[in-house]
Amino acid sequence: MSVITTSRQGDVLILTSDNPPVNALGAAVRQGLQAGIEEAAGDDAIKAVVIACAGKTFFAGADITEFGKAMQEPSLPTLVDAIEALGKPVVAAIHGTALGGGCEVALACHYRIAVPSAKIGLPEVKLGLLPGAGGTQRLPRVAGVELALEMAAKGDPIPASKAKAAGLVDRLASEDSLLADAVAFAGEIADARPLPIASEKPVTVDPAVFDAFRKANAKRFRGFEAPAAIIDLIEKTAGTPYAEGVQAERMGFMKLIMSVQSAAQRHIFFAERKASKIDGIADDIALRDIKRVGVIGAGTMGGGISMNFLSAGVPVTIVEMQQEALDRGTATIRKNYEATAAKGRMTPEQVEQAMGLLSPTLDFDALGECDLIIEAVYESMDVKKDVFGRLDKIAKAGAILASNTSYLNIDEIAASTSRPQDVVGLHFFSPANVMKLLEIVRGAKTADDVLATAMAVSKKIKKVAVVAGVCYGFIGNRMLMPRQMEAMKLLLEGATPEQIDRVHVEFGMPMGPFQMSDLAGVDIGWHRDPTRIENIRDALAAEGRWGQKKSAGFYDYDEKRNPSPSPRVAEIIEEFRQKTGTPQHAITDEEIVERTLYTMVNEGALILAEGMAQRASDIDVVWIYGYGWPVYRGGPMFWADTEGAKKIVAGLEKHGFDVAPLLREKAEKGERFNK
Ligand code: 3H9
Fold it and tell me: 65: Cβ below 6 Å to ligand 1?
């Protein structure tokens, strides 16, 4: 059966696409739509056309899986021009998300009707691309340059109501009668002439908007090629006829689709979706029912974890040992919600709704009614074992017992219960209510349905989850260790914190290793004995240089938290250089990359070979969503592929590192980590 079905209602021809899951505009869809347009052109009895989609959404864009392959005719640009040139009104009937090519099809239609819940957007930029089927030309003409810049350069979809206000949607349909409303609309405008043709509209613009937009978003766009290309393109073509503009768009699209950045961003799009698939577990495995969640510990982590569930409408029982800590934790949760509401991202009613789902208590036994209990207490094996031993006695049968440990052995924790099959690691990243990443740690005895339920729960609370095996630091923190260690050694050998951080920031990280230490707290993990000074970090901590919170760490900070190089830190580093007798040499930026980033790839290769990550792309997802690795570099393993394993092996050997056997094998065979 064709993916496009045609039907008629009176003199309206309805073209309906049914190409699950998201009605991507693959070759068959394009061919079917073109045939429908030709049918309408050749039949005088047809006065108007409606383009609609079955299933959960209007076209969600070009079929990304076709990129890089020979393009079958008609191409999307050809198709959208044919729709616009039909000479009879075409109405787009939009539900779900009209994205990318889907938005471009809608823009080529003469009229657009959408249900209120629909969203419309040009997310190509998130794939390192620019809209390539007229979007950069028709959208400014239909909705104005400013909205076009917002939508195309940032890539976030807008709701139907906003689209209506901007003239991007002509009419809102009733939520449950879109097709009927669209057909009625088509009937009303069947004879209206001239047809509103987007590509023929003039663009009016104040030339100052472009620089203002660049400036306002400089931080967000730093390092990315696509947003700059989109802004330049819209600016350059704003005064030119459509035919010229669309030509420039085509060239811009072809250039970006060949770029490493776009390959990296498309890799991450699919990697994120692949990460939710657990090897060896069937998709349809029966899940455990999670109606109430328990959280042990109302500190920063426990509070943040709780917020994820409260925001998703799941009741939470939060347990502390002292009333004061419980009150403080509850107050922080409320304060965070109120701050979100103050920014307009939540209503006061939603704040109360979320808070209403929270049951703070000092009674550990109250966890007995929870289906999933997450421990977020002090990072000590003895403490964790004690907590799990107590949980074992009171948790209901079948409850999932999770630890938020960042490093510790889940199997050892599980062994302190009589039900290791119910124990799993759920490693949230701080701040837990904000960070997208969740490492789900699979213990030796973790049951399949526990793992699958944890994955389903992660989706419910809008996290991107990755399955990790039991090893010290799991995937993310384990790879962080060689980086931090080398960064410290480089200081002794002659580098400065500023140089090392600059190299990382220029690479695209949000901050370098020392800026990160200062933000997280130099005192984290410190032994708290000011007389025991074994390394630079101890020396800083002993002097109260605990980072941003003390206005002094690896940097000095002014009252606005602007950092500057610290003469005192330079002295401390010098003292340690002398004390340890470390020979100095001029350290190049290249050496910093090799020693702090190649070593991460090396650790990633070990993790992969040991089966601690299911696939290389999972490691990439961890670093993109947990540590701010630049998405345009596709994560450490994708980046390793673009550098080439050979070059990385050579770089590691130059500095005397043990090369992971898997990395060496990739280098010898000329293979990539990500196929
Ligand atoms: C473009 O349009 C270029 C044009 O300007 C010019 C061309 C010349 N293609 O996300 P989900 C798959 S660029 C192929 O889990 P949700 C996805 O991989 C495109 N496949 O569902 C997954 O497969 P699997 C611009 C696609 O409900 C399955 O569909 N458009 C595409 O959470 C379900 O996806 C975009 O960038 C695609 N375009 O979210 C939109 N989209 O089951 C990209 C999805 O095997 N898509 N798949 O893992 C999205 O943002 C979300 O998928 C959407 C649904 C919001 C639509």
Answer: yes
Two tokens, residue 492: 């002794």
Query: Residue 71's pLDDT is what?
Result: 87
Please check whether residue 67 is in contact with residue 266, taking contact to mean a CB–CB distance below 8 angstroms: yes
Task: Say yes or no: ipTM exceeds 0.95.
Answer: yes
Q: 281 φ, ψ to 5°?
A: -120, 125
Assess whether the C-beta atom of 99 lies below 6 angstroms from ligand 1.
yes
CATH class of 293-472: alpha beta
Measured by CA distance, the residue closest to atom 50 of ligand 1 is 60
Q: Which residue type occupies 145?
A: V
Largest CA distance in the chain: 93
Ligand 1 centroid – CA 111 distance (Å): 24
Q: How confident is the model at residue 675 (pLDDT cuts 50, 70, 90)?
A: confident
Place of tokens 């951080």: 501
Going from N- to C-terminal start, the domains of the chain cover: 4-257, 293-472, 495-583
Q: How far lies 605's CA from each of 28, 616, 649, 667, in Å?
A: 40, 8, 12, 12
Just give the CATH number of 495-583: 1.10.1040.50
Q: How far apart are CA 122 and CA 124, in angstroms?
A: 6
Q: Residue 575 is which amino acid?
A: E
Question: With respect to CATH, is domain 4-257 assigned 2.60.120.560?
Answer: no
Count other Cβ atoms within 10 Å, centred on residue 324: 9
The reported pTM is: 0.95
603 annotated active-site: no
Separation CA 334–CA 346 (nearest Å): 12
The C-alpha R_g of the chain, in whole angstroms, comes to 28
Q: Is the CB of 157 under 6 A from ligand 1?
A: no
For strand 423-428 and strand 437-441, is the pairing parallel, antiparallel, or unpaired? antiparallel
Distance CA 103, CA 121 (A): 6
In the DSSP assignment, the letter for residue 368 is G
